[in-house]
């Protein structure tokens, strides 16, 4: 594959000549550029044999650490299998990253293509006309997202954390089925931080890989001696539930204004728009996850239990 040709096509966002990508003997034709992550590009491709559409995630690795992380991402796909977590259909990696001789390697992951786009796209569309989802729909979507997160937290012997849960990392299948994607930030959930250097390292990784408006407070300012666990994801889930109700994370406005998200998150000053059609129960469910002290946050099992209770309460009112 001519990687320069592909990168030019990705930059231009158009197909001037049909670019072909080969993964383990299967040929795919690049149809369009779908988006860029911090470390990857995603394109829409078509299988030359079946004409089925897929998304292909291409990661260019500039050094051994990049390569290790990209290969680890493929590994996490094989560990976490759940209907609400995106499936890896195929993958390959080429070359060896060596910064000394300026050599890069490529990791390609073939993923299902979700034509409905992301939850962020859906909420953006709804925000334009204040088209609120019903409380029942919100809880049903959120419950499925939680079930997907539980698949990470359930991994044995050590739980995994996604660490970049946000509405832009959830694609929508048929009947608004949410599917968690982008396993590039997945890591061992429980980290024992011993010393200032370890704290700084974790803080730097979080700054690089966890989106600010959804990042847990303990990742903004990592203490020198502490334990970080899977409840970083619970904070992100609180932000996602807020966004399902009000179209954006509670910290998006701060981020867009260019004010300090870290400060807003640490103070957890959560305000709720007045005109939205949700009662106090929904707000309390959101607030139960947005606790600044991670030790006060519930684990995923309790969150799922609370969502089931909220759904039962809604249904009893009908």
Task: Name the descriptors.
Transferase(Phosphotransferase), domain 1, signal, Phosphorylase Kinase, domain 1, 12 strands, six-stranded antiparallel sheet, 318 residues, two-stranded antiparallel sheet, nucleotide-binding, 2 domains, alpha+beta
Mind explaining what this structure looks like?
The structure is a single chain. The chain is of the alpha+beta class and 318 residues long. The chain folds into 2 domains: 110 residues, Phosphorylase Kinase, domain 1 (2-Layer Sandwich); 199 residues, Transferase(Phosphotransferase), domain 1 (Orthogonal Bundle), CATH 1.10.510.10. It is 41% helix and 20% strand. A hairpin with a 2-residue loop joins strand 1 and strand 2. The mean pLDDT is 91. It catalyses: L-threonyl-[protein] + ATP = O-phospho-L-threonyl-[protein] + ADP + H(+); L-seryl-[protein] + ATP = O-phospho-L-seryl-[protein] + ADP + H(+). This is non-specific serine/threonine protein kinase. Keywords: ATP-binding, Kinase, Nucleotide-binding, Serine/threonine-protein kinase, Signal, Transferase. Its EC number is 2.7.11.1.
- Give the distance, in angstroms, between the N- and C-terminal Cα atoms: 59 Å
Strand content: 15-25%
Topology-level CATH name of the largest domain? Transferase(Phosphotransferase), domain 1
Helix content: 40-55%
Which spans of ≥5 residues are poorly predicted at pLDDT below 50?
none
Helix segment tally: 11
Write the H/E string, N to C: HEEEEHEEHHEEEEEHHEHHHHH
CATH architecture of the largest domain: Orthogonal Bundle
Mean pLDDT, all residues: 91
Query: Can you list the strand order of the major beta sheet?
Result: 1-2-3-4-6-5
- Main beta sheet strand tally, sense and closure: 6 strands, antiparallel
How many structural domains does the protein architecture include? 2
Anisotropy-based shape: globular
CATH superfamily of the largest domain: Transferase(Phosphotransferase) domain 1
Quick one: how many beta strands?
12
Helix/strand/pairing category: alpha+beta
Rg calc: 20 Å
CATH class of the largest domain: Mainly Alpha
């Amino acid at each position: 594959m001519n990687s320069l040709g592909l990168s030019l096509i990705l930059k231009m966002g158009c197909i001037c000549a049909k670019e072909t990508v080969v993964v383990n003997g299967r040929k795919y034709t690049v149809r369009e550029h779908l988006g860029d992550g911090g470390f990857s590009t995603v394109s829409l491709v078509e299988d030359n044999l079946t004409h089925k559409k897929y998304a292909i995630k291409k990661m260019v690795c500039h050094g051994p650490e990049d390569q290790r992380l990209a290969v680890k991402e493929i590994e996490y796909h094989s560990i976490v299998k759940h209907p609400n977590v995106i499936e890896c259909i195929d993958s390959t990696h080429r070359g060896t990253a060596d910064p000394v001789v300026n050599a890069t390697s490529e990791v390609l992951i073939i993923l299902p293509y979700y034509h409905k786009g992301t939850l962020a796209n859906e909420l953006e569309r709804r925000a334009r006309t204040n088209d609120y989802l019903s409380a029942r729909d919100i809880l049903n979507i959120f419950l499925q997202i939680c079930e997907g997160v539980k698949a990470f937290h359930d991994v044995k012997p050590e739980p995994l954390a996604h660490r970049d849960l946000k509405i832009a990392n959830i694609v929508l299948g048929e009947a608004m089925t949410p599917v968690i994607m982008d396993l590039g930030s997945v890591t061992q959930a429980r980290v024992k931080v011993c010393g200032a250097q370890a704290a700084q390292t974790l803080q730097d990784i979080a700054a690089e890989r966890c989106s600010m408006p959804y990042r847990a407070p303990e990742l903004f300012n990592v203490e020198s001696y502490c334990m970080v666990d899977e409840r970083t994801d619970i904070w992100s889930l609180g932000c996602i539930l807020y966004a399902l109700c009000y179209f954006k994370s509670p910290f998006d406005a701060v981020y867009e204004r260019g004010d300090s998200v870290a400060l807003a998150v640490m103070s957890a000053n959560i305000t709720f728009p007045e005109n939205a059609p949700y009662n106090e129960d929904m707000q309390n469910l959101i607030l139960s996850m947005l606790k600044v002290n991670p030790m006060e946050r519930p684990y995923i099992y309790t969150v799922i239990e609370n969502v089931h209770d909220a759904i039962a309460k809604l249904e009893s009112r009908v």
